[in-house]
Amino acid sequence: CGSEAQRDRVLSVEEWLRKWSAGATAFHKEHGHPLLQKHLDLLVNGRSGLRIFFPLCGKAVDMKWLADMGHSIVGVDVSEQALKEFFTEQSLPYCEEPVPGISGAKKLQSTSGNICLYCCSIYDLSSEIVGKFDGVWDRGALVAVNPCDRQCYVSLMSSLMEKNSSYLLITVLYDPSKHNGPPFYVPECEVKSLFG
């Protein structure tokens, strides 16, 4: 399917944390993602008050944009720095508490209650902890997880989705023999085989 060149590529949590602390976050969009704005209707489909999941959310400003529309946002990222910067830069007060059942994890929740961000490995989450979602905005998550973990990631995502939920996914197409990733190369055929 064309993505064999990167099959064994692995980035550690430490490497992701270093990217945040060094400011090497070119993947962060200051003004929200134009493709989410363009295809918002595919995600919300005229519905209001949805629970929307942001896997590997970083400090995506789209979380506040959707929360301001009345949706309830849940995100997860290993970088506590990114999550705290999100609340600070969006001028949102928040509180912090441990997550029962996940050692060392933290939950950062806006005081208004409609944005809840988990600081832990995404693989530590389950529907018992975070519930299920009406929508998923996967921008920079599937293409960031280590290629060997994709199946595990997709199984987790499937387990977090309500029956009639929408999954909006962005992938990046390029020649994987010329670029190491991340973002990793996930061609359409692989998306289809992963998600069925």
From TrEMBL:
Main location: cytoplasm
Lineage: superkingdom: Eukaryota
Protein's UniProt keywords contain S-adenosyl-L-methionine: yes
InterPro entries from the UniProt entry: SAM-dependent_MTases_sf, Thiopurine_S-MeTrfase, TPMT
Entry similarity comment: Belongs to the class I-like SAM-binding methyltransferase superfamily. TPMT family.
UniProt record, GO biological process: methylation
Name of the protein in question: thiopurine S-methyltransferase
PANTHER family: THIOPURINE S-METHYLTRANSFERASE
Enzyme class of the recorded protein, top EC level: transferase
Keyword Signal: no
GO molecular function, one term: thiopurine S-methyltransferase activity
Biological source species: Odontophorus gujanensis
One term under GO cellular component: cytoplasm
